[in-house]
Amino acid sequence: MEFYSLILQGFSIVFQPTNLFLCFFGCLMGTLVGVLPGLGPTAAIALLLPTTFHFTPVAAIITLCGIYYGAMYGGSTTSILVNIPGEAASVITTLDGYKMAQDGRAGPALGIAAFGSYIAGTLSIVGLMFLAPLLARGALAFGPPEYFSLMCMGLTILIYLASGSMIKALMMAALGLIIGCVGADMLTNVHRFTLGIPELMDGVGLIPLVMGLFGISEVLLNIEVQVKQEILKGKIKNLLPTRQEWKDSASPILRGSLLGFGLGILPGAGPAIASFVSYAVEKRVSRHPQKFGQGAIEGVAGPEAANNAATGGSFIPLFSLGIPSNSVMAILLGALMIHGVVPGPNLVQQNPDLFWGVVASMYLGNIMLLVLNLPLIGLWVKLLKVPYAILFPLILLFCLIGAYTASNKIVDLYLMIFFGLMGYFLRKYRYEAAPLILAFVLGPMLEDALRQSLIISEGSPKIFFIRPISGTILAITILLLLSPLLPKIRKKREVLPLDKET
Amino acid sequence: MGRFGWRKPDYKSGIFFLLLGLWVCYFSWKIGLGSPAKPGPGFMPFLAGLLLAFLSFLLVFQVLFSWTSPTWSTRVQWKNILSVLAAMAAYGFFLDKAGFVIVTFGFVVLLMKVIEPQSWKRAVWGGVLSSLASYLLFESFLKSQLPRSFLGFF
To answer: Which of B80, B111, B118 sits opposite A224 (nearest CB)?
Structure first.
């Protein structure tokens, strides 16, 4: 009974005019970001974070969440129509989606992507609604050692799933921890790595860091070569899939939803990896695997469902444990803290309005997105025709304004430019930014948990191993870290996709 | 080593991060590591720096004994990159001196003319629209405090 009253309470919050408008605004922005190549959800959320400072915490999180799952919807549009994925989670959709468009079936491809996303998105919210409070209750027994082990595991899974070199991913995590240490020490007030710059005493801001690493570096990478855009000619018709197409897509959507949701919960996995795994699964279980890559609708339905379900799943560790599972969640964690909400197992209990309001907004947001993506598809196609030469000054401008308005400090602008250049070189040298961001956000919490645990145990690191929950988590972490030494697993890791935006 | 080492991007970046990691360790040691029972302010950065240095060493070591090919193949338009960086730095420098609207206008026009040159008409319109729209959005709607010009408004 209590459950129903809570969800009703959530809906009553969402139906307040401001929140309703902001939910729509978030979804609209997310679709826009998803459609436009060159600006992923991570950068977009960081970009709009300062604009939410004047909102209530619920309204702010509703807006930012809308951007995230909206981007997952919109990302498929460019993949299908122009063979350019709007963000990393839609890369796989290009394989069959674009082929379908070339064969004159752009309508059904877009249609099934939107419907699949809707179904999977809704299913994952149901999962989130039941699982997050449950997990949070269990996590109340956690002390500093458990949190330390859990954060170590989160970072390790992210590194394990990172594309390319695991050493490089670990290096990025170490760098993120170091950047997270900049500023005055919490306990002793000693200045660390401030280089004599007084503004750095408060530490490096999340917004300049994320906007630099994801926004500015992306623009720099795009303008170093000429980008040629081609657009599908002809009208898009028959958006509603036929009965046969529905029949072919039903199981992939369900499988994709389950898979995506499960992978979304894992720290570090996220939507991009969920979509790749779903594609591989669909190809394996299909009776006609040779059709994959030639315009098979299952190859669109499964991955699109999976990436949307993963967004729902990825909220679970954030809301129940206060631990972000990917860089978008890391920014949301930052947003929660800026708004004075303490993330952790008490969040659902202490801020029921926030949790249930956000969950209810997701139900509504998914319906809004269906409307935004299907009848308005023509509008998004038109938007694709805006040349990059006009787009990139605007992206840069938004980054500059965003970094400035977040703190009203000019030094944050320079910091963002610095991190932009750093991000550019990191990408050139094939280092991923996601482990860096996650480690940066987790760093201060990790340090706090480590120091507190050591104070409790009077300096003995055994505390992490002898407490049952902490010990089990650490054992899994160590196994994961050592597993690439086994040649069989190393081979499998190499085929993991490039996941630059989750 | 020099013949096939320096040409590899991983080698260069590995050396860079190795030195950075060592510097972090040195600095952390200087500000105080504390004891295991009472970790000091340098404790965590020291561990992170040590991890970075150790991993960079592994990376460099790996590169020296492998034959993977370098990845920098595309011709980079450094002019574009440097122009954008300079324009952004100038934006930061002039923002609180000339005011938000004027600097934003100049920034957008400059970038639209320099990277992939647009017509003057398009660039000026782009500058006017983006500066006014962002002013309205951030200053009027979102109540952010943007720097004003010497004229006292905008």
So the answer is: B80
